[in-house]
Amino acid sequence: MNLLPLIWKNARRNTRRTVLTISSIAVSMFLVSTLQAVLASLDRVGAQSGGSHLRLIVHRATGITQPLPISYRAKIASLPGVKAVVGAQWFGGQYIDARNFFANFAVNTDQFEKVYDDYRVPAAQLENWKRERTAALVGQKLMDTYRWKLGDRVTLLNSVFGINLDFVIRAVYTDAKDPSYEQTFYFNYDYLDEAMGGLNQVGNYVVKVDNEAEMQRVQDAIDAMFRNSAFETKTDTEQAYALGFVSMLGNINLLFAAISAAVIFAILFMEANATAMSVRERTAEVAIMKTLGFRRHAILTLIAGEAVLIALVGGLVGVLGAKLAYSFILATFDRAHALGLAFGAAGGLVTGLSVWSLVSGAATRLILRVTRYAVSVLGGLAGFGFGLIFYNAVGTMADNSGGLLADFGVPFETVAVCLVIAAGVGVLSSVIPALRASRLSIAEALRAAG
């Protein structure tokens, strides 16, 4: 017997309850997929900063925030297998105010193109950047974010060093492999050193190695050179160094896993309650179905199938909604910001239609019809406002994350995992009500139904 038509009909019987259940699961799966997308984006930071560029990061052994002497550069450069070395000092400047935050470094310019040979900079622009002390080299994505162009003057405000520095944008770099790295602002270390009256230190050294076979040997040689000195070093691959920054945020994997588990348990109990209510309302129907010859497994399949169907629809709406929403925001925020209005309009339309379906029923009287229209319009306006705020919040977060969330999005692996979770929630939430209904005798079901 084909039970799918019955499952579909039962799922649509109580429209209000079904819509509320689907909406609750959709919002929950949207949250879970968002948390997993953040973790995936942070993991990609480390994965994309591996040994493919043959770069090592030398920092202070006692902590990545503590400085190293400027004299270490020449010593590191003298080691066999080292192709080039650039000192880098985090400046932490802000453009206009604290909301405009991006990575900015003072670097040695003489060997910059050898260390960062994956960056593409026009030769004339590179020479202008090296020659002019106040010149800045800026990533193309950062240029697009603030609508800068060559020759623009930019001031970075800094409260840590207690100075503000003025720059002229003389060069723009691109990264064909990963545009998410085009969000950094580089300038001449000598400019910062002069402004500070002799800084004589850097945050770390970026070392370019001749070939991959030399990576481990050079790492060990650098740390051995400065062992037992006043400024001992720890040399990491770019991947390990990037993951070190992420680890400073704490055990976010455990935190996000705990939050996701709490959300999943909440929707599990919510759908279990909805399924139990649905089964109690159909006790008499169960008796009639058994009288007509429906066996226990058929009753079990009908109830569990309905719960799984509702959970899968909710999960699909939530996780695909997250994937499409984040993809749309990241694709349009820097290039066509006005499309945020379209995003808000879509949110308003979905919310308005949801409210309309929730206020369904016999609206024969004028006051009921007017009320239905009014609350649907108000719901649509609220959805439009929330969508617009959400669009700008996510876009700004991605732009101001210093590259950590530049490629933020929901991978297809997360979509599959969330759908499996939704199906599991549907099965688990229906186990007890379905078993109880399938085990009821005809007499017990009729007596319970009154």
**End-to-end gap:** 29 Å
| Structural domains: how many | 2
- Rg is 30 Å
- Counting DSSP E segments of at least 2 residues, the number of strands comes to 12
Describe the structure.
This protein is an alpha+beta fold. The chain folds into two domains: 242 residues, no CATH class; 170 residues, no CATH class. It has 16 helices and twelve strands. Strands 4-7-8-6-9-5-3-11-1-12 form a ten-stranded mixed β-sheet. It has a two-stranded antiparallel ribbon with strand order 2-10. A hairpin with a 4-residue loop joins strand 7 and strand 8. The longest helix is centred in the last third of the chain and has 37 residues. It starts with a helix and ends with a helix.
Short description:
With 450 residues, the protein is of the alpha+beta class. The chain is 58% helix and 14% strand.
Topology:
Layout: H1 4-11, H2 15-47, E1 55-60, E2 68-69, H3 72-77, E3 82-90, E4 94-95, E5 103-107, H4 112-115, H5 123-131, E6 135-139, H6 140-146, E7 153-158, E8 163-173, E9 184-188, H7 189-195, E10 201-202, E11 204-209, H8 215-225, E12 233-237, H9 238-247, H10 252-281, H11 283-291, H12 296-332, H13 340-358, H14 366-399, H15 412-439, H16 442-449
Parallel strand pairs: 5-9, 6-8
Antiparallel strand pairs: 1-11, 1-12, 2-10, 3-5, 3-11, 4-7, 6-9, 7-8
Helix pairs in contact: 1-12, 2-9, 2-10, 2-12, 2-15, 10-15, 11-16, 12-14, 12-15, 13-14
